[in-house]
Design brief:
Structural class: alpha/beta
Order of helices and strands: EHEHEHEEHEHHEHEHEEHH
Radius of gyration: 18 Å
Distance between the termini: 32 Å
Mean pLDDT: 95
CATH topology of the largest domain: D-Maltodextrin-Binding Protein, domain 2
Number of helices: 10
Number of domains: 2
């Protein structure tokens, strides 16, 4: 039997999973083979028949495929929550984003704003700029990526503000996280894990889920920009 368990995970956990995988292996667990993509992209892949043992998605996404019978509903556990934030290139001035009015001004004053089309952060941001009445202005100069890390566009000079989950922004070197979008303007994303119903290794999957939901993982989650 393989000594590897396959995990499909949302990008938001990409910063934490390598450290958690080492920690899990040191505690006697098997090797974790992890693949990362936005939740919507992972849902498409899973519905197309891609196999995994454990999945980590937004709670809403996990609930969807649990209802469809792909994930064992009784195995689902919440791992962490994350706020959407804004980043700039390292060394660039940090705009004031502490209030709704300040955030609106910062976005309008930016040369270009990078956000993701498929990620939970991009969906939230698209709704937010509509709510602020500035969607047409922002989208006229936006750098919208299908998936991946928006902060890469800061490094290349294509944008001077990047919007994404803070844990995802922190994946890119050469940038600085300004802070979260005001909490009253967003609902934190909750990331959750569950065992695939078709896994051939249910016991190992459940062992990994217990580990991911344990207090021992909290430091690695916090270091990556997530709240356990």
């Amino acid at each position: 039997m393989s000594d590897t368990i396959r995990v499909l995970s949302t990008l938001a956990l990409k910063g934490a999973v390598p450290a958690l995988a080492d920690q899990y292996r040191a505690a006697g667990g098997v090797r974790i083979d992890a693949d990362f993509a936005p939740t919507l992209a992972l849902l498409t892949r899973l519905r197309a028949g891609e196999a995994a043992d454990v999945v980590i998605l937004t709670r809403e996404g996990l609930d969807e495929i649990a209802r469809e019978g792909q994930v064992a509903a009784d195995s689902c556990v919440d791992l962490a929550r994350s706020w959407v934030g804004i980043a700039v290139k390292a060394g660039a001035p940090h705009p004031d984003i502490a209030t709704e009015a300040a955030l609106r001004a910062a976005l309008l004053g930016a040369r270009a704003v990078s956000y993701s089309r498929l990620g939970a952060s991009g969906i939230l941001f698209a709704k937010l700029i509509e709510q602020l009445g500035i969607a047409s202005d922002i989208n006229a100069k936006a750098v919208i990526i299908q998936q991946g890390f928006t902060a890469e566009k800061l490094v290349t000079g294509q944008a001077d503000l990047a919007v994404q989950q803070i844990s995802e922004l922190k994946q890119i070197d050469g940038i600085e996280v300004v802070g979260p979008i005001p909490h009253e303007l967003q609902t934190p994303a909750v990331f959750s894990a569950g065992r695939m119903a078709a896994t051939s290794r249910p016991d190992e999957a459940d062992r990994l889920l217990r580990f991911l939901a344990s207090p021992e993982v909290a430091p690695a989650l916090r270091a990556s920009g997530l709240e356990p």
